Amino acid sequence: MAPGPVEQTEKEQTETVPPKKLPKGVVLGPDGKPCRTCTDVASWFAMTKGASKSKPTAPPVLPSDCPPDVETLGRSSWTLLHSITAQYPENPSPTLQSETRTFMNIFGKLYPCWFCAKDFQEWMKKDGNAPRVSSREEFGRWMCEAHNAVNVKLGKKPFDCDKWEERWRTGWKDGRCD
Predict the structure, then answer these.
(1) Which helix (H) or strand (E) holds 46?
(2) What are the residue boundaries of the ERV/ALR sulfhydryl oxidase domain, all occurrences included (predicted)?
(3) In 40, 51, 163, 172, which residue has its Cα 20 to 30 A from 83's Cα atom?
């Protein structure tokens, strides 16, 4: 005999069934449910019961012990990736070059936001966008170009890739990082 339907609590229903009309910025996962990692905190709050009806005076901020939203994850990821390029050898061995290309391809597959991961994988497959890792300068410039491709898609100002090393390795020439 097949079991009968299991009743869900109201909380379980709201956690498993996405709202009919989603706020701008909510990204659905491959399972059709809102993807917490791919959605910014303001859109997530607007979708959940935590959203207020009045306009907030400041953008919502998640407590530090909550899963990161897409913006926090992105900033942290770019910081890690640029820091890796800044410490990359000037003349890496062929083995390290191969491992670095493999790392970037795996990173593109494992990135927690599935939408961002797919986009990054597609970008790397385009002509001229495969990871360039024969030197620190080449890898740093490639990473800056990858980051700028995302910035453009997000409507942000591209970074001057001639300054990648100051930003991520040596510090600004005006001494404010010393």
Answers:
(1) helix 41-47
(2) 66-168
(3) 40
